Amino acid sequence: MSSDTEAESWAECMDVAVRTALRAGQMVRVSVMQEKRVSSKSTPADLVTEADQQVEELIISTLREKFPSHRFIGEESSAAGEKCVLTDNPTWIIDPIDGTCNFVHSWSLVSYTTVSMGRCTLAGEVTGHFAMECEYMFQRRKGVLLISCPAVLLLPAPGR
């Protein structure tokens, strides 16, 4: 695959990842204020919610439909026993709600994340902070880009 074709392919992946993360973010913002169904995974402190599972399913099903040859490793599906097999195919690693304990308590320190990697090289990441409704995208060799942030908080410098 030529470097131009590969760059176009990764650009398409990131476009889909951004649209999918925005949809996931909407789900998280709605779910955070609702009553949660919570269970534990490996330890009593390792929590999973129904929203974690639903958001992960949305992300994986959307990406799988668009990129059927890609592989997926989801935090919740892996914890439930799904095997993780690394191949040379592009692999998406998904942590649907980063900060589940905070999410369970409806605290604002929660983000939702989609990470893409291929051949063990981080290609990009889409992260959102639900309380500020901000989404960020990282792309290898391009840096970080603020996708959207309708409510930017400007805080005074300390001592002022």
Automatic annotation (TrEMBL):
Cited InterPro entries: Inositol_monoP_metal-BS (IPR020583), Inositol_monophosphatase-like (IPR000760)
Keywords: Magnesium, Metal-binding
Highest taxon above the source species: Eukaryota
Residues that coordinate or bind Mg(2+): 75, 95, 97-98
Pfam families on file: Inositol_P
Family: Belongs to the inositol monophosphatase superfamily.
Name recorded for this polypeptide: Inositol monophosphatase 2
Organism of this sequence: Clarias magur
Record gene name: impa2
